[in-house]
Automatic annotation (TrEMBL):
Its main location: membrane. Keywords: Membrane, Transmembrane, Transmembrane helix, Transport. The keyword Protein biosynthesis does not apply. NCBIfam families: Na_transp. One of its GO terms (cellular component) is membrane. It is found in: Membrane. PANTHER family: TRANSPORTER (PTHR42948). This is Sodium-dependent transporter. InterPro entries: Na/ntran_symport (IPR000175), SNS_sf (IPR037272), YocR/YhdH-like (IPR047218). It is a multi-pass membrane protein. The chain crosses the membrane at residues 18-39, 51-72, 93-117, 172-190, 202-230, 250-272, 284-309, 329-357, 378-397, 435-457, 478-497.
Length: 497
């Protein structure tokens, strides 16, 4: 065994394989699946995008996920430290730590808008609690069995997010509460808290999502929903393909949803114990994450089409459509509360991971005296969390409608064709998902395929056949870098010019 593999990993490990998978799934499953996937699918026209998304998960996401877990476990320490150690043990330069720093910048930027969207979810939690409480106040406890938002018209229900967007102060308060909770958890270290929470809540979340999907397939336009998601429209597809944007969107969504290219899975790989098989864990995480996205699509689009909502409505899709589903459901009030609480939790397990990456890197190396490390972790979480909150306020203001907030008319990178007309929140979303994460994944694949030696990778990954290892290596060496690289250059630089 090489020295690098055992000694650098003094941290507590996840209590077992199931716990690691749940926590990794918890970090991967979040607003990316529930809010972002339907939104990107809606804007790119559905089927063709979904097809490409699945191809990207299989041939790019899965190998890069294996690579990141491998780097994390073998390297030990934060993403930057892990890569530094691995490079050193291979006799290569420390320049590759750039991958860690890039990931840190990406995760930090994602946190600044993720927490704003999570604030929207929190608003919907309170809204649905208020609605049920009101119904009970009026009609007694029997109101529990009635659908959600009974007193409202359908139009009112599907414009609740629109309402929130006219209230900047409320939006900022929700965003602030969410950030504070995230800081408070990361401050305590991720082991006890995240693992327990993920173990309890993730299974409930899955059951709830399934129940909701069944209901929306029954009450909504199931045929239109299926057709939209799974029937590629090749005409639309051809048009989109000519500028490569649909490919970039699919790659970006795959990276965002699996939390790849962001140093996150490198950071979590550190906590994976030596007995666990990386390929199996990676498969389970990718499968669960992709299932949640597709199921969320099947919960949302039938309602969107049945109610005649606009499917290209951006981030608002989930918020405009699902309350209508609860409106048609017995016990809808209870379901609505449960669903939005679960969504909030899914967002929280992801935002914890987002903050954790940065704090772990800022924490420095694992060799620091533990007492000092705890204090540094607390300070790091607070300072980084507060800066994210500050930028988040600007993000929130960029979404406001009805009143001028400066940020809602400001298009920071208007001079770059790819980012033309985007306000801050949408800009940071596009910049991270479609540029920074793919770039991080591109570099990670090269690092794992070319810099890490075959023998080290083979030992660490421990595939059950040499052939599978060869396929993995080939994907990392050639397929991922070439495909991601070409699409990035074409869709982001050449086509927009
Ligand atoms: N994968 C998370 C989601 O889908 C978002 C995320 C991205 C989390 C990158 C961590 C790192 O919601």
């Amino acid at each position: 065994k090489m020295a690098v593999s055992g000694s650098a990993n003094p941290q507590e490990h996840w209590s077992g394989r199931a716990a690691f998978i749940l926590a990794a799934v918890g970090s991967a499953v979040g607003l990316g699946n529930l809010v972002r996937f339907p939104y990107v699918a809606g804007e790119t026209g559905g089927g063709a995008f979904v097809l490409f998304y699945l191809v990207c998960i299989l041939f790019i996401g899965l190998p890069v996920l294996c690579a990141e877990l491998m780097i994390g476990r073998r390297g030990g320490g934060s993403a930057v430290a892990a890569i530094a150690r691995l490079s050193k043990s291979e006799g290569k330069s420390g320049i590759w730590t750039i991958v860690g720093w890039l990931g840190m910048i990406s995760t930090f930027l994602i946190l600044t808008f993720y927490s704003v969207l999570a604030g929207w979810v929190l608003h919907f939690v309170l809204l649905s609690i208020g609605d049920l409480a009101g119904a009970i106040g009026e009609n007694g406890l029997g109101a529990i069995s009635s659908p959600a938002f009974e007193a409202m018209s359908k139009d009112d229900i599907s414009s609740q997010l629109g309402e929130l967007l006219t209230q900047p102060v409320r939006m900022i308060i929700m965003h602030g509460i969410f950030i504070i909770v995230t800081i408070a958890i990361v401050m305590r270290g991720i082991k006890g808290g995240i693992e327990v929470a993920a173990k309890v809540l993730m299974p409930i979340f899955f059951i709830l999502l399934l129940a909701l999907t069944v209901s929306s397939l029954i009450n909504g336009d199931a045929g239109a929903g299926f057709a939209f998601l799974f029937q590629p429209d090749f005409e639309k597809f051809g048009a989109a393909l000519s500028d490569g944007s649909i490919l970039l969107d699919a790659i970006g969504q795959a990276f965002f949803s699996l939390s790849l290219g962001s140093a996150m899975m490198i950071t979590y790989g550190l906590y994976l114990s030596r007995e666990d098989q990386i390929p199996g864990a990676a498969r389970a995480v990718a499968f669960a994450d992709t299932s949640v996205a597709l199921i969320a699509g099947l919960a949302i689009f039938p309602i969107v089409f049945a109610a005649g909502l606009n499917e290209a409505a951006g981030f608002s899709l989930l918020f405009n459509s699902l309350p209508l589903a609860f409106h048609q459901l017995p016990f809808g009030g209870i379901f609505a509360i449960a669903f939005f609480i679960m969504t909030l939790f899914a967002a929280l397990t992801s935002s914890i991971a987002l903050l954790e990456v940065t704090v772990a890197i800022a924490d420095g190396d694992v060799d620091v005296d533990p007492a000092k490390r705890d204090r540094r972790r607390v300070q790091g979480a607070i300072v980084i969390g507060l800066i994210a909150f500050g930028i988040g306020v600007a993000n929130a203001l960029s979404q406001v409608s009805g009143v001028e907030t400066f940020f809602n008319t400001w298009h920071p990178l208007d001079f770059i064709p790819l980012f033309e007309g985007l306000v801050l929140l949408d800009l940071i979303d596009q910049l991270t998902a479609n540029i920074l994460l793919p770039l991080g994944g591109f570099l990670t694949a090269i690092f794992a395929g070319w810099v890490v030696s075959g023998s080290a990778a083979r030992e660490e990954l421990n595939f059950n056949s040499e052939r599978t290892f060869k396929i993995w290596r080939f994907l990392c060496r050639w397929v991922c870098p070439l495909f991601v690289g070409l699409v990035l250059v074409y869709a982001a630089i050449i086509a927009p010019m």
